[in-house]
């Protein structure tokens, strides 16, 4: 019982710290994504493992609905097409699974959210480089100090933790805040 309470309190404490330190960056992310949608752009999301699941989860909230009925909001998780992932992974390399999609799908009006608990995922780094060359705004949901992506993305949101599970819990909370606010506006 004590261990369960400890896990819950660690998660709550980290979220309180994020509320007190990262709210301005979260608002900036909302504004960047809003501008992208207002300019006819879309949201591209990517990550590996649990971060891939977060990318899919958030894209589903925009395409489906978050809390209210509305028109679909254009969002694509670059983690879901098994044919693209296995083709590119086999024919090129795993480091190219997102960059090929960014080069084929991203436009300057788009926003790209790179989700990485370490900030050092090679396939995410290559995709962010391509997105920046295209002119899309890049946002990082990061942790563990932000890694290489911290200095690459236009807007890094670095969760102040080294615990992967706690970082992922905050990433999905930030994603839900993004959905909540934009859901009310579109």
Automatic annotation (TrEMBL):
Under InterPro entries, the record lists: GmhA/DiaA (IPR035461), Phosphoheptose_Isoase (IPR004515), SIS_dom (IPR001347), SIS_dom_sf (IPR046348), SIS_GmhA/DiaA_subfam (IPR050099)
Quote the cofactor binding remark: Binds 1 zinc ion per subunit.
What keywords sit in the KW lines? Carbohydrate metabolism, Cytoplasm, Isomerase, Metal-binding, Zinc
Pathways per UniProt:
Carbohydrate biosynthesis; D-glycero-D-manno-heptose 7-phosphate biosynthesis; D-glycero-alpha-D-manno-heptose 7-phosphate and D-glycero-beta-D-manno-heptose 7-phosphate from sedoheptulose 7-phosphate: step 1/1
The terms describing its cellular component in GO are:
cytoplasm
Positions in coiled-coil regions: none
Reaction(s) catalysed (UniProt annotation): 2 D-sedoheptulose 7-phosphate = D-glycero-alpha-D-manno-heptose 7-phosphate + D-glycero-beta-D-manno-heptose 7-phosphate
Segments forming domain SIS: 33-186
Q: Its Gene Ontology molecular function terms?
A: carbohydrate derivative binding; D-sedoheptulose 7-phosphate isomerase activity; zinc ion binding
The EC designation for this entry is: 5.3.1.28
Residues involved in substrate binding: 48-50, 61, 90-91, 116-118, 121, 168
The processes (GO biological process) annotated in the record are:
carbohydrate metabolic process; D-glycero-D-manno-heptose 7-phosphate biosynthetic process
Signal peptide range in chain numbering: none
Q: Where in the cell is it found?
A: Cytoplasm
Name the coenzymes or cofactors required: Zn(2+)
The entry's Zn(2+)-binding residues are 57, 61, 168, 176
Q: Which family does it belong to?
A: Belongs to the SIS family. GmhA subfamily.
Entries under PANTHER family matching the protein: SEDOHEPTULOSE 7-PHOSPHATE ISOMERASE / DNAA INITIATOR-ASSOCIATING FACTOR FOR REPLICATION INITIATION (PTHR30390)
Q: What's its job?
A: Catalyzes the isomerization of sedoheptulose 7-phosphate in D-glycero-D-manno-heptose 7-phosphate.
Q: What else is known?
A: The reaction produces a racemic mixture of D-glycero-alpha-D-manno-heptose 7-phosphate and D-glycero-beta-D-manno-heptose 7-phosphate.
Name recorded for this polypeptide: Phosphoheptose isomerase
Which organism is the protein's source? Nitrospina gracilis (strain 3/211)
